[in-house]
C-alpha cells in the first residue's frame, strides 16, 4: 500500500457516507512544507453537506481517524495533516527495494501489448547527426521504460534510404564518383557528392531532371540503379552500426523507407477507392482542409512517391503486423506537420487506430547557439563527439582514480553515458547546446555525477563489515537527510509510470540526479560505516539507493560501473 492509499483508507473509514474512496484519493495533497506533514486532506468539499465550517470538520476528522501507520494526525485550519510513521514507512520501502532488486518499480500495465517505436532513422549516405542521436537515445529509453511496465516495445530503425535524393546521388556518382575513394571514407565522400550535385541541380535543371530519372528507375526496379543504391546503403550501414555499437543500442528491425517501396500501391489504391485522392496540377493529393492542414501530396506528376506515401504504407504495415496498442515515432519537432498530415490522412481513410499513433517530438540540438545542418556539408559527426567524450572521461579518471583496473571500459561507460544522460535530462521538447565539458563533468547535473554516487556506495558496501538489515531503521527514520532518501525511493514506481505516460525520460533523469544529491547530502554528514547499533540500517539505506540509482540509469541506457 502506498502512503496515499494509507491516508485515503483511513479517511474513507470515517467518511464513506459522504465521499467515495476515489474522490478522497483525488483530494489528497502534498503539503508545501514538511512541517505540515507528508500528506494533507482539505475539508472544504464537505462543508456544504455536513453544514459545518471546514475548520471544524478538519478538527473532528483528526480526532476520529484511526492513527495506525501514522506518527500523528492533526488539523491545521481547514486541513487534516498526516505525518507518516517514519520507521514503518522506511522499513516497508527498504525491504521492498532490497527484495525486488532491479525489479523494484516494475509493473504489468501493458499486458504484453506491442508498442512499435520508430527511432534513430538516419539517412543513408549522410552523416549520423546529433538529431539522430536524440532520436536514438530517447527512443531506446522509452523502449526500456515501456518494457519495465509490461509492454512489448519493438524498436524499428526507419532508415531514410529512399527518395529522389538517391537519384541525384547516383547522378553525382556517375559523373564524379570514384569507388575506391568512397570505400575509404564512405559517408564523407557521399556527402561531398551530395552537396556538390545539389548545388548543380539548383543551377541546372538538366541535372535535376537526371536525378529524378534515376529515382524513377529505382522505383521501377531498374537493376543498375538499385545496385548502386544498395551499395550506398551497405557502406552507410557499416558506419551507422559502428556508432550503434559505441552507443550500445540494438534494434529489432532495420526496415527503412525502401522496405515499403512495394507496399505503397495498396494504400494509394485504398485512398483512391475511398474517393480521397484529388488531382492538382497533375499530382495526387489528399485534401486536409477540415483538419486545418495543407493538402498531403501523395504522388508527384511523374508518379514518384514521397516521404508521406512511404509513412502511410509504414503505418498500415505496422498495424497489420503488430496490431499495436500504441505506435510511437521519435522524430524531431520540425516534422510535426508531417505527422499531423499522416494521422489526418489515415483518419480520413477510416483508420481509427491512427489515434494510437504518437509523434514523440524533440527539440533541436545546437552547438555554440547555431543549428546543425547536413545539407551544406556543415556537420559535427556524432562519432567524433562520442570519442571525444570518452577521451575526456579518461582524463578525469586518470586524475581521480589512476589505479583503476578496467579504466578503458569505465571511461567508455562514463563518456558515452555522459552524452546520453545530458540529452535525456532535458525535457525532450526543449533543445540544448552540445557542450562536452559540461556533459562529462563529475559535478553538476550530469550522468557522471549520478554514476559516481552509485560507485561510491558500492565502494562503501565493499568495505562494510556487516550486512544490510532493513528492520533496523530507528536511526534512519529519525535522520532528516535519510528521510529525504526514503521518500525518493518510495516515489520511484510513480516516476517510472509518469515517464511512460509522458514519453519523457527526463522525468527519470531528473529523479536520478535528485536521488544522487540526496545521497551525497546524507553521506556528507553521517559516518555510514561506524560500528554502532545503526550500522546495518544505514547499509540497508545506501544499498537500496544504489539499486534504484542503477535501475534509473539502466532505463536511460546508461551503465553504472561499480568503481570509477
Ligand atoms: N529519416 C528521417 C530524418 O532523418 C526520419 C524518419 C522518421 N521516421 C518516420 N517514420 N518518418 O529526418
UniProtKB/TrEMBL annotation:
GO terms for biological process, alphabetical: arginyl-tRNA aminoacylation
Transmembrane segment boundaries: none
Gene Ontology molecular function, alphabetical: arginine-tRNA ligase activity; ATP binding
Chief location bin: cytoplasm
Residues covered by the DALR anticodon binding domain: 450-564
Enzyme class: ligase
Limits of the Arginyl tRNA synthetase N-terminal domain: 5-84
CDD domains assigned to the protein according to its UniProt record, in alphabetical order: Anticodon_Ia_Arg, ArgRS_core
Pfam families given in the database record: Arg_tRNA_synt_N, DALR_1, tRNA-synt_1d
EC code(s) of this entry: 6.1.1.19
Locus of motif 'HIGH' region: 122-132
The organism's place on the tree of life at top rank: Bacteria
GO terms for cellular component: cytoplasm
Protein's cellular compartments: Cytoplasm
Keywords (A to Z) from UniProt: Aminoacyl-tRNA synthetase, ATP-binding, Cytoplasm, Ligase, Nucleotide-binding, Protein biosynthesis
Coiled-coil intervals, chain numbering: none
Reaction catalysis annotation: tRNA(Arg) + L-arginine + ATP = L-arginyl-tRNA(Arg) + AMP + diphosphate
Family from the record: Belongs to the class-I aminoacyl-tRNA synthetase family.
Subunit structure: Monomer.
Protein name: Arginine--tRNA ligase
